[in-house]
């Protein structure tokens, strides 16, 4: 089993907790309060901006051209996802220019950017990989019986899309190229997974 799969399997407990979280369950069946989803959209847009910056920092530090171009390609994917969030924001009445990041969002983005600036590219890839792998997992699980017809169908469609999974795999290929399984890699990956769970919890409470 490669490093990425080992890390994922070691943290399946958190992935399952995210799948069973009432916020994600509310997206699954369409019952989530609009206010909670609106809060999430704003926070996630702020997060994705930091995510794109972390990709670019890692690209600049990549030791070879393939790593450089792969990190930049992934940053482009985040910019496309941000365009999707702009559409969500318009639909849900969220002004992304006035979003104030909550403490759970800040903890996550500060962690990612600090890792990108201070760590090597393998550690950065390990810090960023849980987000992509988790969302691919959630999308596939929520779409396992078909895309539902409700207000959050587009969210499920996006993360269950055949176009999204290769992005997660591309990031995991960077983990394989630059990260060796170590206590530092394991603790970084798990902390990012915990940040994901905290992110859903903050959106569910709609406050920090």
UniProtKB/TrEMBL annotation:
GO cellular component assignments: cytosol
Coiled-coil boundaries: none
UniProt-listed InterPro entries: Haem_Oase-like_multi-hlx, Thiaminase-2/PQQC, Thiamine_Salvage_TenA
Domain Thiaminase-2/PQQC: 10-199
Pathway given in the UniProt record: Cofactor biosynthesis; thiamine diphosphate biosynthesis
Protein name: TenA family protein
